[in-house]
Amino acid sequence: MFIDIHVHTRSMPGASRGGKQPYATPTQLIERYDAIEVERAVILPGVSPECSLQPQSNEEVLAISRENDRFIPFCNVDPRAVANSPTADLGHVLRHYKEQGAKGLGEITANLPFLDPMVQNLFRHCQEVGFPVTFHIAPAVGGYYGLYDDPGLPQLELTLKRYPDLIFLGHSQPFWAEMAPLPTVGARDGYPDTPITTEGAIPRLMRRYPNLCGDLSANSGRNALARDMAYAAKFLTEFQDRLFFGTDICAPDTPTGLVDLLLELRGSGAISEAVFQKVARENAIRLLGL
Cα(202)–Cα(230) distance, rounded to whole angstroms? Predict the structure, then answer.
């Protein structure tokens, strides 16, 4: 029923996080997927130190995907890789992983501004290679993981203009909080629960830039819809070709509330069966050439 555009898994979970297992193993992940009817999933390697106690190799993700065809590999390259330089030749690295079966790049979690020259260099190479990219936005530089943008996402907008042939999959609290104008700057790192009476940066940018897509994984994506279910139906219908189901399962017990929310919207007739199928799986099939 579903294809998950965003998940993390490790063969060896590593040191605990907050007293619990940080990552589900592939076997544990399959058990979760069987219960919620997820047929396939994109594994995103964690390579940046801001987000990973132990960076994960692209080779591990490729190996997991070769062992079980329910997994689809992305590769990941930190913008500072190779030479810590805005002129680093990242293209040959990306082409290598594309030849090995990677379908895209992400999740980008380096805590640098969108307009940092090294980040822009990575985007340029991804566009040339033909990889879609999944990014995480952080609310600040320092103390967080993810690319930084200012409220209103002006750096993302300039990036979308610069790379019109690069598909961007947006994700995280500061991204999805911009569904409506922010009541305070601090609200961008949380889960706003107010109805959407005035549209924010996300619907505006998605109308203006066809290369911006929405990764609905994690509580941030679910909350973007749940905060106003009537608006959610309109948003899902308008952007039905550019929204993607995801879970962002990390720990084995990560909640997957988006499943029930989408089923509720379909069951009530708020969204059509065609819209549901596109968001649930068909957009992923088209984007990834499955």
Answer: 17
Of 3, 14, 84, 96, whose CA–CA distance to 55 is shortest? Answer: 14
pLDDT at res. 283: 98
CB atoms inside a 10 Å sphere around CB 161 = 11
* Segment 43-62, tens digit of pLDDT: 999 999 998 878 999 999 99
Which residue type does 70 have? R
Q: How far apart are CA 271 and CA 27, in angstroms?
A: 33
Residue 140 gets which letter from DSSP? S
124-133 residue pLDDT tens: 999 999 999 9
Instruction: Count Cβ atoms below 10 Å from residue 286 Cβ, excluding itself.
Output: 11
Can you give the residue range of the structural domain that contains 112? 2-288
Burial degree of 75 (CB within 10 A; 0-12, 13-18, 19+): buried
Q: pTM for this one?
A: 0.97
As given in the structure block, the two tokens for residue 90 are 């990242």
To the nearest whole percent, how much of the chain has pLDDT over 90?
A: 93
What are phi and psi for residue 67, nearest 5 degrees?
-80, -25
Find the CATH number of the domain harbouring 245: 3.20.20.140
Quote the number of domains for the chain: 1
Phi/psi of residue 21, each to 5°?
-60, 125
Name residue 215's beta-bridge partners: 244
Q: Is the pLDDT of residue 184 over 90?
A: no
Would you state the pLDDT for residue 97? 98
Residues ≥6 apart with Cβ < 8 Å to 14: 22, 23, 53, 54
